[in-house]
Amino acid sequence: MSESFSAPTGPPPLLSEEQLLQLHRHGWLFMPISDSIQGQIDNLTKEVAQFFDRPEDEKKQSYPASQGTEVGFYPVASEKEYITFRHHVGAVPELERQVAQVWAALASLLHRILCDIARSSDIPTSAWDQLLRDSLELPESSQSLDTTTTLLRLFRYYPSGGFAAEHVDIGLLTLCVGNGKGLQVLDRLTEPPQWRDAEGPTLLVGETVKVLSDGVIRAGAHRVQPNDSGRTSTVFTLRPSLKDTIDLSVFGFEGQLEAKQLWAAIKGSKVNINATKEIREQMKAKRDAKRAKRDTETAVG
Fold first, then answer.
1. I need a labelling partner for 116 at 20 to 30 A (CA). Which of 70, 158, 173, 289 fits?
2. How far is Cα 26 from Cα 29, in angstroms, rounded to an integer?
3. Residue 224: in which H helix or E strand, if any?
């Protein structure tokens, strides 16, 4: 008598149990990537270096900054310059071709890791589908900006520049691939917790995964320290799509929630560490004022 079995859902597992435990405890993981993906990132790094060598006015004209620091070219005096891609623009075709290639490869990789996280948490792998719609490939136009929040950001840090205070990312998962020291992650299992230099490609859990796991999975605390020699970095952040209503039952909660509502709540509690120092301070003051007002209203009520 033959037995039938259901085929496993989602992509095949990638991370080991030990690696998944590391993600749960710390919110970060030093994770080797394939030679193929590393080669694509290396080629993109060379291509964007040529772009960064262009005059600043030309860079701003090619990729105008918009939505704060969320789109386009953005220089921070004496610290760094970077370009953020959220969609095709058409200004530098070869650069964008390589951006699209790396985007697709890293989106597929991080989707696979989300499925591993789901399996380890008794969540169906399909739970992420509602949060990834139209996010796994570089969107064709700016019409996607209201609903596709995923981004690929390319940094050039100047020598002895590029500081970012301790923070966690707001998305689902982030992969950072740099050349040289600068990124540090917080080791929470030491007493007291200690900062560690990133060792190769580094995976970071974002605040959205922490929230949807009810805090079972930590968000990866990290910071950036200056490097005397300067460095470059490729950062791909897989963020939730805002197109759908989230079925919370698949994550162990009740009811439904508009993805835009969840995203606004998470995003509103964070400070943009990639803005200029003055803007960062203004954002922090505004956030603190909101919290103080809320606490006062709660106390009165």
1. 70
2. 8
3. strand 222-224
Instruction: Check if the beta carbon of residue 80 is closer than 8 Å to that of residue 156.
Output: yes
CA Rg value for the chain: 20
Residue in the block written with tokens 């992650």: 185
Collect all residues with Cβ–Cβ distance below 8 Å to 287 and sequence separation of at least 6: 268, 269, 270, 271
Binned at pLDDT 50, 70 and 90, residue 267 comes out as confident
Q: What is the mean pLDDT of the chain?
A: 88
| Cα distance between residue 224 and residue 243, in whole Å | 32
Say which residues have a Cβ less than 8 Å from residue 247's Cβ, sequence separation at least 6.
Answer: 130, 256
133 CB-contact burial (10 Å; exposed 0-12 / middle 13-18 / buried 19+): middle
**Dist. CA 151–CA 132, nearest whole Å:** 13
Task: Give the span between the Cα atoms of 85 and 166, in whole angstroms.
Answer: 24
Question: Whose CA is closest to 186, among 28, 32, 30, 31?
Answer: 28
| CA 286 centroid distance within chain | 23
Give the lowest-confidence range in 26-30, 170-174, 269-273: 269-273
Number of H helices, E strands in the chain: 8, 13
pLDDT at residue 15 is higher than 60: yes
Alpha helices in the chain (DSSP H): 17-26, 35-52, 56-62, 93-120, 129-132, 207-212, 259-267, 277-300
Q: How far apart are CA 166 and CA 185, in angstroms?
A: 9
Backbone angles phi, psi at 49, to 5 degrees: -60, -40
Backbone angles phi, psi at 223, to 5 degrees: -150, 170
